[in-house]
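Entry 12.
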Amino acid sequence: MAKLSDELIIIKGIGQVLADKLASIGIKDIAGLIDYYPRRYDDYSVLTPIARLKPGAVSIRAEIKQAKGRYVRRGLHVTEAVASDETSSVRLVWFNQPYRAAALKPGVPYYISGQFEFGRGRLAIMNPTVELVSEFPLNTARIVPIYKETKGLTSRQIRRAVSEVRPLIAELPETLPDWLLKSYDLIGRSEATEAIHFPANTANLLAARRRIGFEEVFSLVLASLMNKADVKDEPSLPVKFEPELAREFVSGLPFKLTDDQRVAVMRIYMDLERPQPMNRLVEGDVGSGKTVVAAMGSLMALAQGYQVVLMAPTEILARQHADTIYKLLKPLKMADSVSLLVGSLSPAAKARAHQAISSGQAAFIIGTHAVIADAVDIHKLALVIIDEQHRFGVNQRKALMSKAGHMPHVLSLSATPIPRSLALTVFGELDISRLQTMPSGRAPVTTKLVVPGSRLRLYSKIDKELERGRQMFVVTPQITENGDPSVSSAEEVYKTLKSSSFKHRRIGLLHGRQKPSEKNRIMEQFVAGDLDILVSTTVIEVGVDVPNATIMVVESAERFGLAQLHQLRGRVGRGQYPGSCYLMLSKSSAPTQRLKALESSTDGFELAELDLKLRGPGAIYGTLQHGVLDLRIAELSDTELIRSAVRAAREFMEKDNLLNYSQLTKRITKLRLVTNLN
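Predicted 3D structure (tokens):
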């Protein structure tokens, strides 16, 4: 008798080749196969009399007559047949399936499912799936699951494999407590898994999706809540609030803080005064003033002799932060405490920085991963600021925090607006501050969709802007060509611009494969105004500030997510001149709903919610994914499900013990590693 832990090779119909294909998508044993959920369904469960067929997905029960195949031209084989029931007859057509005619048995009832549409001049069921009524239908006359496929591996093969191990689904251990299943009206795990692969009807499928989706969200929230509870038990350095210092900082600013900034800073000060570590996320659009909030939030720690570390994902951004924070602290005579530590520093400069940090002379340390090197001794660390925190691994964050010898306060910054539903799940252990009001004086960036046929007209318009001294970013989705001519690459666009419309302009190329010193040199040239155009990949997506850059052209715009496009356009219009963002489409066909939304909305939070709805959480946290969110069934737009799962996780924390549930413990242990920001 087969077991859940058995290898796939023991399943009837699975040879070594198919087992290897399944292993390539992460399915290595029977339990993994059962746990591989369909991505969508085709509903062929309703049998329609042939006389009442209408165009679309259809299922019929009929006998087949007159099946014959022929080559209509070189390389194209067509098989045609006639299917009949007691009401009428319909034509069936298959392309390049020469075996079909011989395989079909006359006078025997079949289930036939497919698309009823025009083919070869008449209505027919095109490329239908056919199964004998006498056998259990896997691919017809039911709600048919469609699985994520790969080359050489089809949904039909996966359905057959799952059907072979169907009896083992009943042996799946329950993962949720009985009291929780009853309280939230959820079906059991094995019943839900059976219905996910073999739904009896729509209601059965919905109940299964609700159960599995509920557990996915419940697990994420529970992991976050447990992390939060653990962090609260750790001692931290309380930092006293000094109102006069805060007032002095604000009076020295050349602009007025927004109400959102003021509220965020006060929350930070309140958190810092507690003996438990702060764990706060400040999120807001590009240009909403997160760096100012971070600098002001650091004042009290600096004034009381403690150290602050700000870690950024790129050297370009680290240098920019150092420059900005130096200027912000200068009126308070604190600027000399700012120290930059990045990988490109000379050995002598690094040694000086290390000495200044270990002596405490460098109080505000800004850098990349270099700040967590073994040689760095930050013994008075009170506050850690992590910019674009989802770009760092858990181990890197822990390495930085372990240098303090205690749990420091943590402030995370993100220019990626996080939908509330996602914040509840993945970032449930964080306190969140939102900067939704833009500072006064910042004009919104005008966004326009551009079809390929309008490119030359657009270039002529842009050249006039460049003539006035402005600068332009051109962003592409990839560095080099990948064989698909419809997808732009940085190298090809750079060559084209240099040899055609902008050959009289100074053009630079920036991408992730260049050495850090080369990237810094090119970026410095652009910032200094020595380049008119910078062709780049999304390496310029976060943090780069060039006030004179007013134009952004995004090539193959449909290849980017909404949140990413919104961040990219935030790179222009940051000075005294308004910005324009042109989204260049690969084809002249109608633009998608996502891209149209960018033309009409400048609200990053609104766009993030839409991106979540249209493309799922991976669109927002592509770099965070790698199995982290693992929401294969739950939809984060399902607010009712999320509210219930959050309530259940809190209830579990109050009345139950995770150690009572071995399966759930394994899942939560894994999730605590990926959701933990401390």
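Annotation: The chain has 22 helices and 20 strands. The radius of gyration is 30 Å.
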